[in-house]
What we know:
The structure is a single chain. The protein is of the alpha+beta class. 49% of the residues lie in helices and 14% in strands. The strands form six sheets. Strands 1-4-3-2-5-6 form a six-stranded mixed beta sheet. A five-stranded antiparallel beta sheet has the order 16-17-13-18-19. It has a two-stranded antiparallel ribbon with strand order 7-8. The mean pLDDT is 95.
Amino acid sequence: MDTRYTCVTSVEEIRKYIGQSKVVAFDFETAPDMAYKKEEKAALDSARAHICGCSFSVEKGTGIYVPVEHLVGANIDKKGFFEFLAEFLSDTGIVKIAHNIAFESSMAYARGIVIQPPVYDTICAAQLTLKEAFCFRKLPECGLKQLAMEVCGEALPSFLKVTDGKNFDELDGHDPETVRYGSADSDFALRLYYIYNDWFEQFLPCHRYIAEKIESEAAVYIGIMKCNGVPADAGVINQKKKEAEAEIDRIRNEILFITGDVNIGTNCSTQAFKNYLYRDLKLPVLKKTVTGRESVDDESMQRLKAWCDKNRKDLSRLFTLVQEYRGWNKAKSTSIDGYLKYINPVTGCIHPDMFGLSTDTGRMNCRNPNLQNMPRMTNDPIGVRNFIRVPEGYKILSLDFSQIELRVGAFYCRDERMMETYRNNGDIHAETTAVIFGITPAEAKDKQSPEYKERRTIAKNVNFGTFYGLFPKGLQNTLEFEAGIHKTVDECAQIIRNLKRGYKSLESWQNDTKWIAERQIYSETWLGRRRYLPNITSEVWKDKAYAERCALNTPIQGTAADILKLAMARILRGLPERLWLRPILQIHDELVFIVPDNRLEEAITFVRECMVQQPFPEFDIPLVANASAGQTFGEMEEMDE
């Protein structure tokens, strides 16, 4: 590898190297703070690590490495360097490239620096390119060293080989191997920037826009959330742990009293429990697994309880206990032990891993732990959401897009009735109630009607599947096991027919979308985020039907995800003047922050404006973002506009 990498120790030398370049790659090398030297992965934690070096590259094969806080060799003046770094990362005239810019963002934000667009994350770009026909690169395939070899044809040394088990700040910052390793990260990020942009222009131009204007900016925002973390009340969680253990023991003993000491495990899904239900008790098999075996999943338990309510009332209590037992065990493993495991001892917060491109539609997801799967506020009997608490003088602030997927669906299918409902700030659930039951909207809104609650519940469940291709049997299952409403398959079929008659453009949009996807072998969002669906031409009905559902789901859910990320980018631009506004979490269509009490109204106004802006010129349905705030995430009060 023919390269020209040098070590520099002054801001003047950095400025001289960068010159007038408007495209600059950079990379941080980090090391644990002294108190955490022996802690695994501390170098990746902005609360326990520091930037010990930084590299820049403006031309292929060149780069500079700047030792900032090495324990061996001369370093740059730290104060002067970070003043320069803040200026560089805030410069809106320079495209700032990094491989995994979320990490750089987290480390910079810990020093009070909010990286400003334009930015470019080569990990995001890699995931938006095809590795093979119909297959985009997955995140585990996007490490810089793997891409350097596969895309650039060059081998880079591993971190372990260069450091030989030391922390990076224990290396001599002037040693040629240290300089080479640090500089190469920026050099190859720069190379990937040009390679991927050429690829985009040749094969998928829309994906360049998504990489630059959506995913890279969202990655910076993700880094800020990672740095801030989600405040967790360990005392409350530990108290709930004791309660959970007591409840699990109580319920387990009650189940064993009924079953006669059958081994039920931690989830009542053991073979012994199956044998007890289906062989000893000879209960009917109301659901089977995909392999044809008797099922004991939650739906099976609900079905068996309903059957026992009519035929074996003496056994009904068993299935109630099984659901309670599973609920407490799940809460303990995921939300109690799971949250306690990930509380950072330095910050007292949970800093989950957020990923912007780990789903096929572009929706973000969360791991370690998955804070996106917290129970809803209206269905949180154990009080998991109260584990999230801020100190006195602060509030948790949430702004949630109202029915964004339904609004995006109305935009796509161009149904006049749907669009007018949203344009007039109407009630889409009442409108759908009127459509499927053949009544007027006024009758649908009449809360005094004895049928109001059931009709509206049905309409809500129908709405959430309206655009994705409802089937009578699927609707029947949804109503029965999620809403507790029993309808025959014929009644569900009639509901769907009424829906399509009332929303006249719906079925034609669905048919057109599936037809186009079958001919293109892909579906895409409005802004061009593509999802390949090779099975849409399959002769296997199950595979084809799933691909068709994906063809309908992708434009709506994916466009909604794009709209949310565009809102995050607008918020990002306003954060340098609002460092008191601390993003901490994203949950589906919701953005969550910590704000001082005296800034609450200001924060609501700013974030809401960022969220409800027209996302792209063609989008002609109004967006609505509802705000709520509270001391804990489980006690949030709605904030009026």
